Every structure is written in C-alpha cells, then in structure tokens.
Amino acid sequence: MFQPLDPLLHSELRLAIMSLLISSDEAEFPYIKEQTGATAGNLSVQVEKLSAAGYITVEKTFKGKRPCTICRITPDGLKAFETYIEALKSYLEVKTN
Amino acid sequence: MFQPLDPLLHSELRLAIMSLLISSDEAEFPYIKEQTGATAGNLSVQVEKLSAAGYITVEKTFKGKRPCTICRITPDGLKAFETYIEALKSYLEVKTN
DNA sequence: ATAATTTGGTTTATAAAATAAACTAATCTA
DNA sequence: TAGATTAGTTTATTTTATAAACCAAATTAT
Predict the structure, then answer these.
(1) Alpha-carbon gap, residue A82 to A77, rounded angstroms
(2) pLDDT in tens, B10-46
(3) Fold held by B12-96
(4) Does B44 contact strand C, using a CB cutoff of 7 Å?
C-alpha cells in the first residue's frame, strides 16, 4: 500500500540539499546555505548525515586562501532520491480500490 | 526557491492517514491502523494532531456495542494536502537555472 | 459464573531527529 | 592591530516520532 519513505531523505533540509545537487551536480557550502536558507550549523549537520550515508561526497578544498567545501551527489544518492520519489507517489496518488 | 513543507503533513504516518482519507473520504481507526501498519498508540497520537489542526474530524460513535472511531478529512485538510503536494514539487523538479 | 482473550483505543515514557546557539579559526578591513 | 566577516564545527536544546504500558468494555472459553 504505502511504500516506506527513506528517513534520510524525508527531511525538508536534506531533501533541499539533494534537490540542489541533482540540479547543479556540484555546489559549495555557502551556496547551499543561501539557497536553502538554513543556518550553517544545521546545514553542517545535515550535510554530514548525507555524506555518512554515501548519498553525497564532501570535498574540503580551498578557493584562494579561503576554505571551500564542495558537495556532490553520488550514484547511490541519485538512486535513493529516485526511489524516494517513487515511494512518495504511493502517498499522493488517489487510490481507486 | 524551495517552498516550506507543512510539518504536520511532512510525516510518513500522517501523510498516509491523509492519503487514505482523501481516497476513501471516511475511514475507521482499525482500518487506518491496518492500512498504515502503525501501532494503535502512534496512530492515536497522529490522528489527534491532525484533528487538533483541523485537517480531519474524529467522530467517536458505536458499531453495535463496540466503540468506533471514524475519521474524515476536512476542506482545510484537503487544501493543506494540495498545498503540500505543490510545495513538494519545488524539491522534486530539476531546476534549469 | 468467571477467567482469559480480544478489541479499541489513550496516556505516558523513551528514542531519535531537527535546529539553533555557541564556539573555533582564519582572513579581510578600517 | 582591533573589529568584522567568512566558513564552517560542535554541542546543547527543543521538538517529534514511536512504542510500551495501560484502561475499559466486550467476547469467548472453562
């Protein structure tokens, strides 16, 4: 009937992060922060969770002299996102039986 | 960019309850319990939250001698559900800009 | 008849999650 | 060189989800 919703993706901020990374393939921490309106602390925690799950990679590099954290979606992350959307449909479609 | 997701609906169980009520317009507590696979306790709590928000009504009646709790969606609930789906789309569509 | 079981829940306690506040460290600017 | 800004992380707090424990009535078995 209802397919389970991946709890890692069923979160407003983490879903927004994944959505951004699907669209832009790679994004810097401050950009994600600006686009999502999240606080840096919250974003840091959620990025770490997605990274720990293998849904995104986090590269810590430099942009000139300043630190620069770049996030990218992984194939696993893309797969999980697609599965999540499919699962969501089981909640959104009107059942006829 | 991203539209906020009504936290009352952005919950696996509450979303399932709302989904059932949209499809069947009216449903008994044990039926919802069976369809969602939720425990009675969890279901009771989430039904109460939806009821407190005015998204559903809860009628406590009897079926023969046994108590019977009937849930129905309200116009407000339907509206909120539709708004939630629209908001979700802002996370699921691939952005081109 | 009464003891055990089932039905239909509610209340309460616990575990997990989201979020913000506080903090660190380096760089830029006045 | 003092203050402000950037780029985050860590930690504490609040909120939420969930299950366990509980209650009451009805049904079934002994």
Answers:
(1) 9
(2) 999 999 999 999 999 899 999 999 999 999 999 999 9
(3) Arc Repressor Mutant, subunit A (1.10.10)
(4) yes
